[in-house]
Amino acid sequence: MSDNSKLVAEKRTDFGKGAARKIRRAGNIPAVMYGHGTDPVHISLPGHDTMMALKQANALLTIVIDGNEQLALAKDVQRDPIKPVIDHVDLVVVRKGEKVTVDVPVHVEGEAAAETVVTLDHNTLQVEVPATDIPENVVVSVEGFEAGTQVLASAVELPEGATLVTDAEALVVNVTAAITAEALEAELAEAEAEAGIEREESEEGAATEAGEGEAAEAETASAEGDEA
């Protein structure tokens, strides 16, 4: 994991929606920091630097308040549903040597065998790791995997010092055979038949059948003329 980001914060004494809006208008982000039995500390964080630091999941932050440094993890980040800004951050205090439980993204790499589909059933794995050594992700290689191969959480390689918290039997990656166009068409037709849906003829097919009908009528008329 990269070095933790250092953010210089200011204590705030005004609370409520109005105070929070004022902080955001000034380009900062309202936040609260708590943990280890300490009273919550309400602070204001520099907007741009905080957004950059929180681009990485489970980013370890060094919060500087009145010259004192405190390690913290973002427990909850509230983002604006429309604009690309952060509305509020909850920070939990951590200490060096302490272990924390976090959700770490799963990254799939490599190419499975031909005509297969790789499905990621768990986007993250919950692990317990030292607060100062949280991995950015865990990697699962599917190189050459054949259809029918499954990777369980217990088979995912974790970094040294990490302990799996997610159920060891949880399915993380599933490799299945790719369905052919013919098989997909057959399944669709079967589903439609079960639902009592009749397919309409395509315009091209209808036109072909109409043409064949006209030709047949012409032949019949010609045969009747010869007989006459």
Automatic annotation (TrEMBL):
Annotated stretches, region: Disordered: 190-228
Record key words, sorted: Ribonucleoprotein, Ribosomal protein, RNA-binding, rRNA-binding
Residues of the Large ribosomal subunit protein bL25 L25 domain: 7-91
Keyword hit for Membrane: no
Presence of keyword Hydrolase: no
Entry-linked Pfam families: Ribosomal_L25p (PF01386), Ribosomal_TL5_C (PF14693)
Top-rank lineage group of the source organism: Bacteria
Domain Large ribosomal subunit protein bL25 beta: 99-177
Acidic residues bias: start-end ranges: 190-217
Biased composition (Low complexity): 218-228
Subunit structure of this chain's protein: Part of the 50S ribosomal subunit; part of the 5S rRNA/L5/L18/L25 subcomplex. Contacts the 5S rRNA. Binds to the 5S rRNA independently of L5 and L18.
Its job: This is one of the proteins that binds to the 5S RNA in the ribosome where it forms part of the central protuberance.
Family recorded in the similarity comment: Belongs to the bacterial ribosomal protein bL25 family. CTC subfamily.
Name of protein: Large ribosomal subunit protein bL25
Source organism of the structure: Terrabacter terrae
Phylogenetic lineage: Bacteria, Bacillati, Actinomycetota, Actinomycetes, Micrococcales
Gene name, Swiss-Prot/TrEMBL: rplY
